[in-house]
Specification:
- This protein is α/β, with parallel strands linked by helices.
- The protein has two domains: 198 residues, Rossmann fold; 178 residues, 3-Layer(aba) Sandwich (Rossmann fold).
- Helices cover 43% and strands 14% of the residues.
- Helix 2 packs across helix 14 and helix 7 packs across helix 12.
- The longest helix is centred in the C-terminal third of the chain and has 18 residues.
- The two termini are 40 Å apart.
- Uridine-5'-diphosphate binds next to helix 2, strand 8, helix 9 and helix 10.
- Pfam families: Glycos_transf_1, TreT_GT1.
- Homodimer.
- One of its GO terms (biological process) is glucose metabolic process.
- One of its GO terms (molecular function) is glycosyltransferase activity.
Length: 397
């Protein structure tokens, strides 16, 4: 059986002093019971974060649980529409949608007895849970979305739920809500020991790529994302098609479909028409493949149109990849344009940066090196753990 990593294991990345500090912050919180609620155990960044965060918190002596709201497909169809609307899309907000949403969350409230010292509710799916408890402890809404320009109608509908929370955590200062609730800003972080991020030998990388028949004769341009329009897979294909007129390369678009995202399968199917010998589109659930691709890619793209944070960006940067990211949301916090990657705002710009990077291995190396340092200093899960500890401690009497 694999051992669960403890904070001491992270010392090579963050140093002795940070380990000591985190342990000291955890000590006064040892007896607490904390619960995280979200809407999927698999797929998407929140489940990746919670998988590492909850184990690490337990290893620090804080009893931290993780539960998932359950619901039928029409519930997740409604919540995905809310998700899209909160990132700025149009929605037809009918009473039927509200009824499905509130009824299924109520059913989950009946099943889940949340009598914890602190409850963290992630994203809009379980948001109304709070209305069904006689609350005796702090509840925190942790929203991971890009809230730069939310649809007002959905926003106004959700505000009464949000206002019941004791605090709100958002990934970036730009997402500050016009609400009189305490707001805290911190980004998530990546776990260097997860399957997606742990060290891989060259032969293990070869083995994964061969297993999926991914050709390595030409440089790889890679984007790894849930199949979601916000990730702009069509823009990635267009940028690649422009770039390959000047530099030979292969595009690999790999994605998975989160269990709370009913639109994913359709987005995936819509991309299949673009497949060719040099455009590989794959829906797979294999963290080791993600790891191998981020390590072997000449260029990693994350050309999102909206992005709450974008763990895939830090994951690739951690591996020393040259990353081109959409100039939006949380990606801007990770990539310093021209220093730790490139930020782009159009297909044209993305294509130019792909060509530039393919032609300049020294630049790739230089950006990749700075990128890894940036992640080490700012975007590892240990820093996220510390920020959760600070937040929990702030509630103590
Ligand atoms: N991921 C994965 N396989 C895939 C696509 C994504 O394991 O095919 C992981 C990815 O490595 C990252 C997470 O899913 O850890 C996606 O998080 P991100 O914040 O980038 O985007 P989200 O899906 O939450 O919008």
């Amino acid at each position: 059986m694999n051992a669960i990593h403890t904070i001491d294991d992270y010392e090579p990345f963050i140093g002795k002093e940070a380990v000591r500090r985190i342990k000291a912050k955890a000590r006064p919180l040892h007896d607490l019971h904390v619960m995280h609620m979200n809407s999927t155990y698999y797929g998407g960044g929140v489940s990746q974060i919670l998988a590492s965060l909850t184990l690490l918190m337990n290893s620090l002596g804080i009893e931290t649980g993780w539960r998932v709201v359950h619901g039928p497909p029409d519930f997740f169809s409604v919540t995905k529409k809310f998700h899209n609307a909160l990132q700025g899309a149009e929605i037809n907000l009918t009473d039927r949608k509200k009824e499905i949403y509130e009824r299924v969350v109520y059913e989950n409230a009946v099943r889940n007895h949340l009598d914890h010292d602190v409850v963290f509710v992630h994203d809009p799916q379980p948001l109304p849970l709070i209305t069904h408890y006689r609350k005796k402890s702090p509840w925190v809404w942790r929203c991971h979305l890009d809230l730069t320009a939310p649809n007002r109608e959905v926003w106004n509908y959700l505000v009464p739920f949000i206002e019941k929370y004791d605090a709100i955590v958002l990934s970036c200062g730009e997402y500050r809500l016009d609400l009189k609730r305490p707001q805290v800003f911190f980004t998530p972080g990546i776990d260097p020991f997860s399957i997606v991020n742990r060290e891989l030998s060259e032969s293990a990388i070869d083995e994964r790529l061969e297993h999926y028949g991914i050709p390595t004769d030409l440089p790889l341009v890679v984007q790894i994302s849930r199949f979601d329009h916000w990730k702009d897979p069509v823009g990635v294909i267009k940028a690649f098609e422009m770039a390959r007129k000047e530099e030979e390369c292969t595009l690999v678009l790999v994605g998975n479909v989160a269990t709370d995202d009913p639109e994913g399968a359709e987005v995936y199917r819509s991309l299949l028409a673009h497949r060719s010998e040099r455009v590989i589109v794959m829906s797979v659930q294999d963290g080791a493949l993600v790891n191998a691709l981020q390590r072997r890619a000449a260029v990693v793209l994350q050309k999102s149109l909206r992005e709450g944070f974008g763990l895939t960006v830090s994951e690739a940067m951690w591996k020393g990849a040259a990353v081109i990211g959409g100039n939006v949301g949380g990606i801007r916090y990770q990539i310093r344009d021209g220093e730790t990657g490139f930020l782009v705002s159009s297909v044209d710009e993305a294509a130019k940066r792909i060509v530039q990077l393919l032609r300049d291995p020294d630049l790739r190396k230089q950006l990749g090196h700075a990128a890894r340092e940036r992640v080490r200093e700012n975007f590892l899960i240990t820093r996220t753990v510390e920020q959760y500890l600070d937040l929990i401690a702030s509630f103590e009497p």
